[in-house]
Amino acid sequence: MSKVLITGGAGFIGSTLADRLIKNGDQVVIIDDLSMGDIENLPQSMNVTFYNESITKQAFMADLLITNNFDYIYLLAAIASVADSIERPIETHEVNQNANLNILETIRKEKLTPKKIVFSSSAAVYGNGPELPKKETSSIDPMSPYAIDKFATERFMVDYGKLYGLPTVCTRFFNVYGPKQNPKSPYSGVLSIVSDCLVKNDVFTLFGDGSQTRDYVYIDDVVDALLILATTSDAKWDVYNVATGQSISLIDVIGAYESASGEKLKVEKKEARLGDVQDSVADITKLRGLGYEPKVDVNTGLAKYWDALQEK
Ligand code: UD1
C-alpha cells in the first residue's frame, strides 16, 4: 500500500486516477479547491482523505507534505483553461506554476522522499508549430499564459529535479476525454460538450468546418500512462507525450459518437476560433518504450463514455 497525493483529485483526470489507486489498495489524499472539480467525482472510500483547499495555500501544503511524506505525488491541479489564463494571467500563474514550485521547495527543504513526482503538462506547449506528429523534441511555442506556465513548470520539474535529486517526470496530455469531464465552459473538452448536447438534445456549435484533427485519448489510457510514469524509476527528469498516436477530424469523431450513441447531434456552424490549431497528433514512441500501449480506440471510448452517461 502506497500513500499518494493527488492535487486536483476532484477533477476529471485526478478523480479517475484516484478510483484506480483505491482499487489497487492505496491510500489517497486529495486536495482540490473545487474550482473546476466536483465533490461528486471523489471515490467513496475509507482510504480517501479530501481537503477542500487551493494548492496556493503554501503553509497548508507544506504541512500536508511534511506530515504525510507521500510515496507518490501527482500534480494535476491547474486552472486548465487557455482562455482563463489570457483573462487572468497572474492568478492562473500562481496556480499553474508558483504553487507547484512551492511544492518542490518544500520537498527539497524538508528532505522528503517521494518515489516519484508526476507533473501534468499539456500539448499546448507545442503551440502552432508545423511538425506533425509532435515528438517531445519538436519545437515549443507556448502561445498563452497557460502554455507558458505549463512549459516553465516542466522545466522546473526536470532541471530542479536534476539539481536537487528529486525524482520528477512530466506528461504532455493531448485531448483527453471520458466520463467526469466537466462540460460547463465553452472551453471544456469538445467531446464533453458534444456529450452534453447529445444528452440534452441541445445544439452543438461547430467552430470552423470540422476538418480540424486531434489525438483524442480515453481517460483509462491516460491513467495507465500516469501509473507507468510513476512506477518506472528510469522515467525521470523527462517529458512524455500521452496520447494515442492516431488523429481524427472533428466531423468524423462526431459521426463516430452518433453511431456509438444512436443519437443525432444538432449542429450549428460558426467561424473557426481565433488561434485554433488545425491539426494535432502525437508521436508516442517514447511512452511506448516504457510499455505503454493505448487500449481504447475512439469508437470503443465513445461507446464507454456514452454508457457511463446513461448510468448517471
Ligand atoms: C486542447 C486543450 C487546450 C490545449 C490544446 C493544445 C482542452 C479542453 N483544451 O485544446 O488546453 O491548449 O488542446 O493541444 O482539452 N470546438 C467546437 N465546438 C465547441 C468546442 C470546441 O467546434 O463547442 C472545436 C475547437 O474549435 C477545436 C476542437 O473542437 O477545433 C477541439 O477543441 P478543444 O476540445 O477545446 O481542444 P483543443 O482546441 O485541442
Overview of the molecule:
With 312 residues, the chain is α/β, with parallel strands linked by helices. It folds into two domains: 3-175 and 216-242, Rossmann fold (3-Layer(aba) Sandwich), CATH 3.40.50.720; 176-214 and 246-311, Alpha-Beta Complex (UDP-galactose 4-epimerase, domain 1), CATH 3.90.25.10. It contains ten helices and 13 strands. It has helices spanning 12-23, 58-68, 82-87, 89-109, 145-164, 190-200, 219-231, 250-261, 285-288, 298-311, and strands at residues 3-7, 27-31, 48-51, 72-75, 116-122, 168-173, 175-177, 203-207, 213-214, 216-218, 239-242, 248-249, 266-270. Strands 3-2-1-4-5-6-11 form a seven-stranded parallel β-sheet, with helices on both faces. It has a two-stranded parallel ribbon with strand order 7-10. Strands 8-13 form a two-stranded parallel ribbon. Strand 5, helix 5 (145-164) and strand 6 form a beta-alpha-beta unit. It is globular and about 55 Å long. The mean pLDDT is 97. Bound molecules: uridine-diphosphate-N-acetylglucosamine. The site of uridine-diphosphate-N-acetylglucosamine has 19 residues, from helix 6 and strand 8. Uridine-diphosphate-N-acetylglucosamine binds at residues 82, 122-124, 175, 187-190, 193, 205-207, 212, 214, 250, 273, 276, 280.
- Overall pLDDT score: 97
The 3D shape can be described as globular
Number of contiguous helices = 10
CATH fold title of the largest domain: Rossmann fold
Estimated structural class: alpha/beta
Alpha-carbon distance between the termini? 31 Å
Which percent band covers the strand fraction?
15-25%
